[in-house]
Amino acid sequence: MKYRKILSTLPFLLIILFFFLLNYRILIIKDIFCSNQYGECDNALGSSLKSAENKSFRESKRKLTDILKSDGLIEDYSLQFGFPDKIKVQVLVRKPKFAVKSLETNLLSLVEKDGQVIGVEEASNLPTLGLEGYAPNVGEQVSQEILFSLRILYDLFYLYQVRFATLRNDGVTVELPQGTSVIFPTEGDRQVLVGSLNLILARGNELPDISQVDLRFKDPVLR
């Protein structure tokens, strides 16, 4: 009976010992594994997380938290202990949908769908909006004017494979593949604006000499 009683309490004692090791800096983390919704984390993030190896569980967890919170590309994350000396990191990464480029520099600000800048690159295949002045920095939120212009550009990218537009005080200017220049306002109903352009282009045979479509007015101006 005495041995049975000891055996019955052994798992409970082991659990207590395990949490003691976790909380009192005795357990050393040897391996950190990182994955996201697409598979393994990229090399840059993976290498950064490796700096939390060979530390106590508490120190490693604190280090990982600092790294993950400071990374603008990460929307959410979780940490899971793996017996006996591993931590599994799972992250939800943000994906840029647009890019913003200062007309005075070569750097591109990568922007996610809701307008937050999540990265900076020298080149990108994303639909790109050129700006006069500076481009926003990582962590900043673009203005509603810029976000509206980006969404217009994305619509045109989907319809006509247009990858670049320019935002100036007088509106958003794009060059369509057939050579027509289009000027959009920086606010309004996107569906109505893009729909109006589609109707005008559909009448191309009737209006063969159009070089510019200006949609900033109640009635489109054709030149």
Task: Provide the descriptors you would attach to this structure in a database record.
Rossmann fold, alpha/beta, 5 helices, 2 domains, Ubiquitin-like (UB roll), four-stranded mixed β-sheet, nine-stranded mixed β-sheet
What's the quick description here?
The chain is an alpha/beta fold. The chain contains 5 helices and 15 strands.
What does this structure look like?
With 223 residues, the protein is α/β, with parallel strands linked by helices. It has 2 domains: 16-93, Ubiquitin-like (UB roll) (Roll); 98-222, 3-Layer(aba) Sandwich (Rossmann fold), CATH 3.40.50. It has 5 helices and 15 strands. Strands 9-8-7-10-11-12-13-14-15 form a 9-stranded mixed beta sheet, covered by helices on one side. The protein has a 4-stranded mixed beta sheet with strand order 3-2-6-5, with helices on one face. A hairpin with a 6-residue loop joins β14 (212-214) and β15 (221-222).
Mean pLDDT: 87
> How far is it from the N-terminal to the C-terminal residue, by CA?
99 Å
Radius of gyration: 27 Å
* CATH fold-level label of the largest domain: Rossmann fold
Shape: elongated
So how many helices? 5
Any low-confidence stretches, pLDDT <50, length ≥5?
none
- The oligomeric state is single chain
Helix/strand-derived category reads alpha/beta
Question: In CATH's first tier, which class of the largest domain applies?
Answer: Alpha Beta
